[in-house]
């Protein structure tokens, strides 16, 4: 398992918890707005051994509530259940960030009660997923992941980074309808923030929705699912 990043303290990434974040390398999607380019492309950045991570975590017992496992796409790592199991043995809660492409792993993690919170990305309307994830994904896997998460009884959120270059208002409302149809409890619209070193350089100057536009879209989404906006237009 390639652990390429450690963010030692976050007050915002694990709802209502003080947490650290571990970034696992590699991803099977190629979302153009992705800002974790080095992780996704498995670039040669010095990472951490598992033992370095566990030494750090042991030093944080009683100081942190939880650990966020992020990426890249963490579920690509076959040894994830054992890794999380060791984290939980230290008494930490675990939040998993995932793109939903590996329902088999999600099923394993939820059945073994290894995760306390799941945040899954929804990239686009289901019939048009490749327009955003830029990968030939089997959409049945995304649907299966949505069902596993909604039925798991585990606290969860569905989140979508949205921007006019990739999503129409109707697309986003369609995504809210999808969340509703699977029984997802919470939907976050994440404001796109243009910055350097995105996966697709053409998106570095892409325009975000204005805050007002996003508020209007949120109002529409609220007809289907509890929806919040995350992030501000920059
Ligand atoms: S934003 Fe897309 S490409 Fe980047 S880590 Fe998430 S799923 Fe992978």
From TrEMBL:
SUPFAM superfamilies (alphabetical): Radical SAM enzymes (SSF102114)
GO terms of molecular function: catalytic activity; iron-sulfur cluster binding; metal ion binding
PROSITE patterns per the UniProt record, alphabetical: RADICAL_SAM
Record's keyword terms, sorted: Iron, Iron-sulfur, Metal-binding, S-adenosyl-L-methionine
Ranges for domain Radical SAM core: 13-226
Top-level taxonomic group: Archaea
Protein name: Anaerobic ribonucleoside-triphosphate reductase activating protein
Originating organism: Candidatus Naiadarchaeum limnaeum
């Amino acid at each position: 398992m390639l652990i390429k990043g450690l963010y030692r303290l976050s007050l915002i990434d694990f709802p209502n918890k003080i947490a650290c974040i571990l970034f696992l390398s590699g991803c099977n999607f190629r979302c153009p707005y992705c800002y974790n380019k080095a992780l996704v492309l498995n670039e040669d950045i010095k990472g951490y051994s598992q033992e370095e991570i566990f030494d750090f975590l042991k030093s944080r017992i009683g100081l942190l509530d939880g650990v966020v496992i992020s990426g890249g796409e963490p579920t690509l790592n076959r040894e994830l259940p054992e890794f999380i199991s060791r984290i939980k043995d230290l008494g930490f809660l675990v939040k998993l960030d995932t793109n939903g492409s590996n329902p088999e792993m999600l099923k394993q993690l939820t059945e073994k009660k290894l995760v306390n919170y799941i945040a899954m990305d929804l990239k686009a309307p289901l019939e048009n997923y490749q327009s955003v994830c830029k990968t030939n994904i089997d959409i049945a896997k995304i649907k299966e992941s949505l069902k596993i998460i909604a039925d798991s009884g585990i606290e969860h959120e569905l989140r979508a980074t949205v921007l006019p270059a990739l999503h129409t208002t109707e697309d986003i409302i369609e995504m809210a309808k999808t969340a509703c149809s699977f029984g997802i409890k919470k939907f976050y619209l994440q404001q796109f923030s243009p910055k350097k070193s995105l996966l697709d350089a053409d998106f570095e100057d892409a325009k975000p929705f204005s805050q007002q536009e996003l508020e209007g879209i949120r109002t529409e989404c609220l007809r289907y699912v509890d929806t919040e906006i995350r992030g501000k237009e920059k």
